[in-house]
Predict the 3D structure of the following.
Amino acid sequence: MSLGLWSVPVVVHWWARRRRPPKCWRLTGLALGLVVAPASLGLYALYYLSPWTAPLGIVGLLLVGFHGWPGNDLAIKVGLVEARTVVQGVEHLYIALLNAPIWSILYGVVGWAIDAARSRRSARVAATEGRP
């Protein structure tokens, strides 16, 4: 299930590229931010599957370490998760729900910056070619 989450930003990018080209990257960033924390956990689970998937699991471990801490710290501060314990069961859901707005805003802003740069570049090219 968690590995299937990686398809969400891919589908959103495909849709936005055809339907909303000026907002393609901000929508993709928003979608990536919504799913990156639980999808990283699913990628980390590949470490235990077989020796051939272990390198992907190591990448997942790095991604979980990077994307998991804000939600984990916030969950501890609001009392959803106990400090210095192993996260298990529904606690993963709490952390993922707290991570989603954090990372979707961050990746959405990065996507907005890419869209703005692409818009400026296309406007500059249109101006040099004499197009309106």
In short: The chain has a mean pLDDT of 94. Helices lie at 7-19, 24-45, 54-78, 90-129. The radius of gyration is 18 Å. The first helix runs from residue 7 to 19.
